[in-house]
Amino acid sequence: MSMRVRIHRGSHEIGGNCVEVESGGARIVLDLGRPLDAGHDDEVPLPSISGLDGNDPSLLGLVVSHPHQDHYGLASQVSPKVPVFIGEAASRILHEAAFFGCAGLTCAQAGLLRHQQPFDLGPFRITPFLVDHSAFDSYALLIEADGRRLFYTGDFRATGAKAALFRRLLERPPAPVDVLLMEGTNVRGDAGPRGGCRTEAEVRAAMAQTIGAARGLVLVAYSGQNIDRLVSVFSATRKARRELVLDLYTAVIAVATGNPKIPQPGFGGLRVFVPQSQRRRVLESRRFEYVRRVKKCRLYEQHIAARADRLVVTFRKSIEPMLDALPSALKGAVAIWSQWPGYLDMPSGAGTCEFCRRHGIPLIVHHTSGHASIADLQRLAGALKPGRVVPIHTTTPGLFVQYFKNVAPCDDGVWWEV
Ligand SMILES: [Zn+2]
Ligand SMILES: [Zn+2]
From ligand 2's centre to the CA of 263, what distance in Å? Predict the structure, then answer.
């Protein structure tokens, strides 16, 4: 007996991760992501894994490393008979995101991932390791079976709010492992060892400077599920003695983290605006508790116009109609783009560019990657002492040999032994 692995997607692309692991006829699936290049309405078929339809009991479960679509996005197509394992906060966040139509996930999860709390699924012992990443509640996974050990990094970085977790992993690694299945988003030809990765603290400082220098309203576009970034935006806002305005969706996600230290309704200096589209969603579903919970800190259109130079507003497509109707509030306004700059050249970011052009608002980018630099990937590989390094979540697996020892790239769809 041994442990076998087959990458279904991710060996030559960033995102869409899906890995099947087999031992003694039993199988588990690590992540079931939607490819990042799939359009919003594109139908993406499930990878050919027996049992995703609920009709093969040898499939013991699906383990979702973290709540990013390129890791869970196809999970809603899986039979409810397949047990799903995910972090508790991650599961709450995706449940709320589903309510707001933001590609969430509502599934009855079979088990929750907890930092360094191993659990057994058939022949597999699974140990989650909480990691620093731009998604909240993200895990790397150690999979053990038949005396073999596979360490799957999921997505991670070492420059964010949870950087201490990375240091601890280096100090006390579950080493040696037989195979390190490692993400390589920043393993690119043009990337230096630091991979252009600024720390989250550097982003926060740059943002505080822009907000401090602004004369009018400041708009910040960031992912509502990037909780590290929410913390940075709030901190930069307070440093500039302004108030941060969240849309209802972002406020609900912040609460869903279950962490009272995350900026959320009830915090001084934090307000909530409910855009028309979100108001409609609440009305139609009659889920009035969503607005009731933000009653005390709610802000309306007229307040935003009157206090533009004292506010930082979370910038989403859903608030553009409100801003279009308040041209006086946009006098001297500045916009900050705090997510992947590549979106600005894609349909998803084009609307923001057009909005800023229309109103003559400068758009400044303050962002850093949610992924580890080459230097940090090398540190991890050094600590885990893998027999082999298998690249995943990369467009350039061939470049791994330049930076790591014992690299063995594996194509999608091919079984290999751990
Ligand atoms: Zn990813
Ligand atoms: Zn991710």
Answer: 22
Instruction: Kindly list the protein residues that place their beta carbon closer than 5 angstroms to ligand 2, a single-atom ion.
Output: 68, 155
Q: Which ligand is nearest to the CA of 370?
A: 2
Task: Give the pLDDT confidence score for residue 39 in this predicted structure.
Answer: 82
Q: How far is the centre of ligand 1, averaged over its atoms, from the C-alpha of 185 (Å)?
A: 8
pLDDT at 106: 78
Ligand nearest to the CA of 35: 1
Report CA(218)–ligand 2 centroid distance (Å): 27
Query: Given this model, what pLDDT does residue 87 score?
Result: 96
Instruction: Tell me how far the alpha carbon of residue 68 lies from the centroid of ligand 2, in angstroms.
Output: 5
Ligand approaching nearest to the C-alpha of 135: 2
Q: What is the 3-state secondary structure (H, E, C) of the chain?
A: CCEEEEEEECCCCCECCEEEEEECCEEEEEEECCECCCCCCCCCCCCCCCCCCCCCCCEEEEECCCCCHHHHCCHHHCCCCCCEEEEHHHHHHHHHHHHCCCCCCCCCCCEEECCCCCEEECCEEEEEEEEECCCCCEEEEEEEECCEEEEECCCCECCCCCHHHHHHHHHCCCCCCCEEEEECCCCCCCCCCCCCCCCHHHHHHHHHHHHHHCCCCEEEECCCCCHHHHHHHHHHHHHCCCEEEEEHHHHHHHHHCCCCCCCCCCCCCEEEECCHHHHHHHHHHCCCHHHHCCHHHECCHHHHHHCHHHEEEECCHHHHHHHHCCHHHHCCCEEEECCCHHHHHCHHHHHHHHHHHHHCCCEEECCCCCCCCHHHHHHHHHHHCCCEEEEECCCCHHHHHHHCCCECCCCCCCEEEC
Model confidence over 244-270: pLDDT tens digits?
999 999 999 999 999 999 999 999 999
Q: 187-206: per-residue pLDDT in tens?
A: 987 766 666 678 999 999 99
CA of 393 to the centre of ligand 1 (A): 7
Ligand nearest to the backbone CA of 15: 1
The low-confidence residues of the chain, meaning pLDDT below 50, are none
Domains of the chain: 3-191+370-417 (3.60.15.10), 200-365 (3.40.50.10710)
* 15 C-alpha to ligand 1 centroid (Å): 5
pLDDT of amino acid 101 = 84
- Which-ligand-closest: CA of 138? 2
pLDDT at site 194: 67
Ligand nearest the Cα of residue 392 is 1
66-120 pLDDT tens trace: 999 999 999 999 999 999 999 999 999 999 999 998 777 877 677 899 999 999 9
